[in-house]
Amino acid sequence: MISEDHPRYHSLRLREMIVDAWQRGILADSGMIAHGRGEAFDYLLGEETTKPAERAIRAAAAALLLARKPVLSVNGNTAALVPGEMVKLARELKGKIEINLFHRTPRRVKLIEEVLRDKGADEVLGVDKLTHIDGIMSPRATASPDGIYSADVVLVPLEDGDRTEILRKSGKTVITVDLNPLSRTSRMASISITDNIVRAVPAITASVRELRGSEREELERILEEFDNRENLRETIKLLDIRRYNPEL
Amino acid sequence: MISEDHPRYHSLRLREMIVDAWQRGILADSGMIAHGRGEAFDYLLGEETTKPAERAIRAAAAALLLARKPVLSVNGNTAALVPGEMVKLARELKGKIEINLFHRTPRRVKLIEEVLRDKGADEVLGVDKLTHIDGIMSPRATASPDGIYSADVVLVPLEDGDRTEILRKSGKTVITVDLNPLSRTSRMASISITDNIVRAVPAITASVRELRGSEREELERILEEFDNRENLRETIKLLDIRRYNPEL
Fold first, then answer.
1. Has residue A46 been placed in a domain?
2. What torsion do the CA atoms of A18, A19, A23, A27 make, to the nearest 10 degrees?
3. What family name appears in the similarity comment (chains A, B) (predicted)?
4. How many domains does chain A have?
5. Within-domain flag for A60
6. What are phi and psi of B133, to 5 degrees?
7. Strands A142-143 and A153-155
8. 3-state class of A30 per DSSP?
9. What is the mean pLDDT of residues A103-108?
């Protein structure tokens, strides 16, 4: 157990959750390494939701509210860190949840389905037969026919760049959460939220609640005014690490 | 197997070595996450040995050559990535190798000892009874009486900040290899090499060979001219990530 007084308590707590999920078989080995990369970028961002991230979160909420069929994708790291928050957001949107694993084994799918059901999910997609988006015969292109395959707006946190590109090319609005603003995922997505998933998902839910009563025109305006490329550019400016160590 | 044509071949190859070492029990779980953090910083440094890193490597070689008793410390990540290079450097210096693990179990010590002996190490310290530096009763302060405890110059790659501080306070010259120039380890060390260990260790060996014939005064001059704080400051400037994505 980590003391709450430890200066890196929150970061170490997430690390414990990741190791625990991996021990339970939810996370692939590569998921641990990916978490470490995220830690480094979060550290450089000051471990807080930046202004550009707030704008991306608001745009994501607007896109999800405008969606005909929003689908939320859950992978190992997402299941490790925010399973309950994903279920809550899906409920708020009356959207679907789909398990999406690159290192896919029946056991991992089953374990993650259990975690999501434990957190109150009624329906979990991606556990049965999958189809290939645009007929692309790659494990990066698989999706549930009733879920991501037929969705117009997808939230795919901690996603791979190739898959993000495939989803984008198929005409979907793709929302990602990724701590590296330079990653292919961040550059390929329609709306890139450069933030820690443990902060971003509850913030999207809060924003969905806040915007719920808005006119369609107002939501469309929020989306139109959001420029993902410009937003990433501003995020990258904030990653200037010199400011984190004025002593040096 | 990863294709050599893959744009991230070298990085993915190291990732495979890390996962393999962890599967063999050499690496603690936290070592995988730590590798991910290193990956992120290496990416921001352009995955090459920078000019400041070259200077730190040269200063490290001078310090090791001037040492009365140089000792090289090996932990799980070091054993996973550069066991043979560490043995080679120890031989070049007629220095000792000591296993130093925070998540210490007899099994991991044994496995790492085997890896080092496989690579040609005659003597491996840190496998028997340890003593506490300056009487500090912390697992971060343990060292072999015949190794780090009585060394004047230690190379402790991928080290923890607290332990680096303890080693420094005990009066030793502490050389680290750490990809995060802002880490406590980097700030606490006498000579901080901000570089990937797979590039840094062979480079130290090459520099030791090059400087081997130098006069003592010349080596002392190299050390005196090296300013660790200034060197870290220059490294941090190089981490300005905007330059890595001119498109944005």
1. no
2. 40
3. Belongs to the archaeal phosphopantothenate synthetase family.
4. 1
5. yes
6. -65, 130
7. unpaired
8. helix
9. 91
List the single residue in A35, A244, A245 with the smallest CB-CB distance to B33: A35
Digit-coded pLDDT (tens) for A143-168: 999 999 999 999 999 998 999 999 99
Residue B131's beta-bridge partner residues? Answer: B143
State how far the Cα of B67 lies from the Cα of B151, in Å rounded to an integer: 8
Which residue carries 């330079």 as its tokens?
A182
Separation CA B113–CA B109 (nearest Å): 6
What is the dihedral sign for C-alpha A26, A30, A31, A35?
Answer: positive
Closest CA to A30 of B35, B26, B27: B35
- Residue at B45 is within a domain: no
Note whether residue A214 is domain-resident: yes
Mean pLDDT of A45-51: 92
Tell me what pLDDT residue B244 has. Answer: 53
- The residues with which A97 forms a beta bridge, in sequence order, are A72
CB proximity A40 to B under 8 Å: yes
**Cα A163 → chain centroid:** 13
Which residues, in sequence order, are bridge partners of residue B98? B73, B125
CB contact under 8 A, A40 and B40: yes
B247 contact residues in A (CB cutoff 8 A)? 187
Please give the structure tokens belonging to residue A237: 């400016």
- The whole model's pTM is what? 0.88
**Closest residue to A36, CB basis, from B36, B241, B242:** B36
Nearest to B96 by CA among B152, B49, B56: B152
**A180 contacts A232 by C-beta, under 8 angstroms:** no
ipTM: 0.82
Domain of A132, CATH number, reads: 3.40.50.12640
User: Taking a C-beta distance cutoff of 8 angstroms, is the pair A72, A204 a contact?
Assistant: no
